[in-house]
Design a protein that fits this description.
The chain contains 10 helices and 10 strands. The chain has 277 residues and is an alpha/beta fold. The chain is globular. GO terms for molecular function: ATP binding; ATP hydrolysis activity.
């Protein structure tokens, strides 16, 4: 079997597997009297799927919002390692962080329903388009060549996620499972070094979850993209993750390989509910 070689990610691809890629240190986030995150520290390594789990309200989405620039923590650092050195993400705007190599999906589907699958995926390339207004309007020279290059990258994502049969369909006409796959694809079109997935399997049935989990594995193994995953389905988390971080009431209570975390008494008490689950 011949495995296709994909051209992403742009950033982080020169890091060796296992090297620290995204480092969160002593991050604290407060909303008035509510401490959403309290001294969170974790390291996402090149080439891994890193799951963040915990009960509702544990601070999981708040952590992703800090990493992606939607929230600014009151203390701590968040650093992204690149081939050209480390970059501090705290204080940067979301579009700047996206350019540095992070892409984000959300719990609710955030696609343009009246646009086709192909058009939604092309929007994932928007932050890398740099042609001037006039060439873009008349579509010649550099603008045309750039459009062709971006389309080639989108075609790779369509191939990886097996979206060929729905490429020209409006997103609003797709099944829920396909729409979730398109959202994953649009984030992947940004060529991230780190892909942040916030409950990508929420609302799916067992068959849809199994399918999407396989595509997340393909994104990680074939495309070389490191993944930070928030997910409530423990079977999925334990099956596909290399490292699991557990939060409870904004604090980190466990961090390590899935088997170690699964048997941790603090995790069982706070989240899993029973040791042999």
């Amino acid at each position: 079997m011949i495995t296709r070689e994909y051209r992403f990610p742009l950033n982080g691809s020169l890091l060796e597997p296992g090297q620290p890629l995204l480092t969160v240190s002593d991050v604290g986030l407060r909303f008035g009297g509510v401490q959403a995150l309290d001294g969170i520290a974790l390291t996402v390594r090149q080439g891994e799927i890193h799951a963040v789990i915990g009960p509702n309200g544990a601070g999981k989405s708040s952590l992703l919002n800090c990493v992606s620039g939607l929230y600014r923590p009151q203390r701590g650092t968040i650093r992204l390692s690149r081939a050209d050195g480390e970059v501090d993400l705290v204080g940067r705007r979301p579009h700047q962080i996206a350019r540095l190599g992070l892409a984000r999906s959300f719990q609710n589907i955030e696609l343009f329903k009246h646009l086709t699958v192909l058009e939604n995926l092309m929007l994932g390339r928007h932050h890398r388009m740099s042609h001037a207004l006039l060439p873009a309007l008349v579509w010649f020279g550099p603008a045309r060549r750039q459009e062709i290059e971006h389309r080639a990258m989108v075609e790779e994502v369509i191939d990886l996620l097996e979206l060929q049969v729905v490429r020209h369909q409006p997103v609003g006409a797709l099944s829920y499972g396909y729409a979730k796959r398109v959202e994953l694809g649009r984030a992947l079109c940004m060529q991230p070094a780190v892909l942040l997935l916030d409950e990508p399997m929420a609302g799916m049935n067992a068959e849809e979850k199994e399918s999407l989990a396989r595509y997340v594995l393909d994104v990680n193994e074939l495309a070389g993209v490191s993944v930070v995953l928030i997910e409530h389905d423990m079977d999925v988390v334990m099956d596909i993750s290399h490292t699991v971080t557990v939060l409870d009431f904004g604090r980190l209570i466990a961090d390590g390989p899935p088997a170690q975390v699964r048997s941790d008494p603090a995790v069982i008490s706070a989240y899993l509910g029973e040791a042999d689950r």
